[in-house]
Amino acid sequence: MNPGEIDRFPVSQLEGRYSLARSAVYKRMEQLGIAPQRLGKRAFITGQDLALMDELHAFINYQSGSAAEFIEARGLRRPPPVRGPVGNGRPPPENGAALVPTDLGSFVRSIVTEVFNGLAALPSGDRLNYFDRLEAAAQNGWLLSTTEVGDLLDLSPAEIEGSGDSFFEAGFIFRRSGYRKNGQVAWRVTKRLK
């Protein structure tokens, strides 16, 4: 797809496009000042934003640069995105530029709104329950399948399989340890020591 021809691109497809975890995709969008637009329960970015994300991805992967270097080189010092209503119930501008509050009260309100919007986007129930499950797997020496690790960490099997023989996430180390009965890679979970 040519980003110049795209009106809106689903944020959910960015993980596969760049082979990144969802948290890394959102981190890049935050660094670039890109605020996804919601349509129902789905989030989208504009074609212009997609082109910028593609450029950043190429810069990081093919020029061994960092997001900070890319932003500096492009002169993209943007204020952080403001999601939700912005002053007088108006939505943020459609060109992707965020409004910067001019007084402390507006600034605090925008931060509080951002925090509550972020919490609302998380799944219901105990949002940190996966830490307990990972702790139990580490203590009991359980071998988790790729699917089980993916469910706990909200990662795709491709992301996990592409991590090599081990990877670190959420304070735990995951090491390949044979195969499970269902043919999936088995992962041994250990707690990372400080």
CATH domain class name of the largest domain: Mainly Alpha
SS-based class: alpha+beta
Secondary structure tally: strands? 7
- In terms of DSSP E residues, the strand content is 15-25%
Q: How far apart are the termini?
A: 44 Å
State the domain count: 3
Mean pLDDT: 77
Radius of gyration: 19 Å
Helix content: 40-55%
Biggest pleated sheet: 4 strands, antiparallel
Poorly predicted runs of 5 or more residues: 85-101
Listing every helix as H and every strand as E from the N terminus to the C terminus, the arrangement reads EHHEEHHHHEHHEEE
Largest sheet strand order: 4-7-6-5
Q: Enter the CATH topology name of the largest domain.
A: Multidrug-efflux Transporter Regulator, Chain: A, Domain 2
**How would you sum up the global shape?**
globular
Number of H- or I-type helical stretches: 8
Level-2 CATH architecture of the largest domain: Orthogonal Bundle
Please, could you describe this protein's structure?
With 194 residues, the protein is of the alpha+beta class. It has three domains: 1-81, Multidrug-efflux Transporter Regulator, Chain: A, Domain 2; 84-95 and 102-122, no CATH class; 129-191, no CATH class. Helices cover 43% and strands 17% of the residues. It is built from eight helices and seven strands; from the N terminus they run E-H-H-E-E-H-H-H-H-E-H-H-E-E-E. The protein has helices at residues 14-18, 22-32, 47-62, 67-74, 104-121, 129-140, 146-153, 157-161; strands at 8-10, 37-39, 42-46, 143-145, 166-169, 172-179, 185-191. Strands 4-7-6-5 form a four-stranded antiparallel β-sheet. Strand 6 and strand 7 form a beta hairpin. The longest helix has 18 residues, at 104-121. The radius of gyration is 19 Å and the shape is globular. The N and C termini lie far apart (44 Å). Mean pLDDT is 77; it is low at 85-101.
